[in-house]
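An example makes the point: we print one protein in full, the chain in one-letter code, the fold tokenised, without further comment:
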Amino acid sequence: MDIGMIGLGKMGANMAQRLQRGGHRVVGYDAGPAAREGLAGRGLETADSLPALVAALPSPRILWLMVPAGEPVDATLEALRPLLQAGDVVVDGGNSNYRQTQRRAATCREWGVHMLDCGTSGGVWGLEEGYSLMVGGDASVAERLRPLFEALAPAPDLGWGRVGPSGAGHFTKMVHNGIEYGMMQAFAEGFAIMQRKESLALDLPQVAQIWRHGSVVRSWLLDLTADALSDNPALEGIAPYVPDSGEGRWTVAEAIDLDVSAPVITMSLLERLRSRENDSFADKMLAALRDRFGGHGVRQG
């Protein structure tokens, strides 16, 4: 198939290369010349503008967006609007909020254009390992793009599927990332407990390697934990500051709206927020209160 890849960051460029390996023709576009040059250096076609990209593809066109969620998606769609024709397909493979996706899909229908949302997981390892793809949108359109999904996935029959109507792909990916928050937090806390037990002098890289085989907690996240500890057992030079990209917040908000108890995901999100407080007023208040009611004293800082 012929496909245009818009957004050639770490994910987009690797996905373009994996699609090419699968026998598809990919034309890439990015607003940054360096990103386009990087893809061209891998032997793929590039275009220096959106009109040139669209013109390079046969009708009906398939355009896959790998741009940051939010305004960049709307801006890209608006720039594409005069270039698109009825029957063209736009795939949003980023981490958009599913409600925005539903709005955009309705707008695209007014233009006569199909839109699929594809929650995409795999990170920098996807090029070699394949991507997990959660597709939302019209079933017939998803089926039409099956060869692309099969090429991107770990195997043609593994790791991908249409999960529901418009928004379902991004909703599923949102919850996926919320679960990821909880799993990462549990590993982080467990290894912190072992690191603090100095009397046992535990070899944390060794423990991680042991758990990777036969343990009920074995997983790709544990594999990455083992790699990180092997490279840097004391995690020296890494600031205790954990960003979040939004999906965890959206997951918690949905849980509240749906009256679903999700304490682990919620607390893992709050811990990320806490990591950014270099001068926590709340902790100071706790120390002051302990001193007031119990005379425990406070540490001067």
User: Anything to note?
Assistant: The first strand starts at residue 2 and ends at 6.
